[in-house]
Write a structure and sequence with these properties.
241 residues; alpha/beta; TIM Barrel; two-stranded parallel ribbon; 42% helix
């Protein structure tokens, strides 16, 4: 039992060191927050109308019996605007205490777009996600497949209120790959990236991915609580001491 625990600690330390190295090479992306506090960010990608309520409900099930507000799970939902029929789900995300992020109009490689097309896409998505009715400040953009270039960075810097870095993660997500897309594998994989300041990434957007994420959250959230981690939005993590 002790050996197993020590092995897990060593694996997490190795992944933390790798993430630190990558973040130094790609300094325009946010891969983690340097901190000694047991605080991490939970992010959900490819969000739209389909399945998002189930993910919100999974988080609410865990939050239901927590007495302290600081212990409640808060996540950042990166929305793809073409997956929205209306903005009601955006209201629901915010009402339940979470954050909305910009993930573009489509689930594609933003890095292959021309500078003008990319700038137009993120601006149009921003307008949808931050309408006057919603009154929510969007602070993050996450590029498709975590790839970006200098012209994309320049467009990002021109968006009012956004951080001038791309929202990435401490892990390469594998929960969209058909062969290994199952809750058991995803849970084991994600668990290797739990360390102070890490940014976890799971997916919504369709029925199958949502079911996988819900099953993972039902087991992952109690584990994080047992390890005394505070799980917050990406903005809360980035702005923490």
């Amino acid at each position: 039992m002790v050996v197993r625990y020590q092995t897990k600690v060593m694996v997490n330390l190795i992944t933390q060191n790798l993430v630190t190295l990558v973040s130094k090479i790609f300094s325009s992306g946010v891969f983690y927050k340097k901190t000694l506090s047991k605080i991490i960010s939970l992010t959900i990608d490819d969000v739209g109308d389909t399945g998002t309520i189930q993910i919100l409900d999974a988080i609410d099930r865990f939050n239901h019996n927590l007495l302290k507000d600081r212990d409640r799970i808060r996540a950042t939902f990166f929305v793809i605007s073409d997956k929205l029929r209306d903005s009601l789900i955006l209201d629901e995300i915010l009402k339940r205490g979470h954050e909305i992020g910009n993930h573009g109009e489509q689930d594609h490689f933003h890095v292959v777009l021309s500078p003008n097309k990319f700038a137009t896409e993120i601006e149009r998505t921003h307008q949808i996600l931050s309408s006057n009715r919603i009154k929510h400040k969007i602070k993050w953009f996450r590029p498709g497949r975590a790839l970006y270039n200098k012209s994309m960075l320049q467009s990002l810097k021109e968006l009012t209120g956004y951080y001038d870095r791309f929202a990435l993660a401490s892990m390469l997500p594998l929960d969209t790959l058909p062969i290994i897309k199952n809750p058991s594998f995803t849970l084991k994989y994600v668990s290797k990236f739990i360390f102070p300041g890490s940014i976890l990434l799971l997916h919504g957007g369709d029925t199958e991915r949502t079911a996988n994420t819900v099953a993972v959250l039902d087991k992952l959230l109690p584990q994080l609580r047992e390890k005394e981690y505070q799980v917050v939005t990406l903005s809360e993590l980035w702005e923490s001491n």
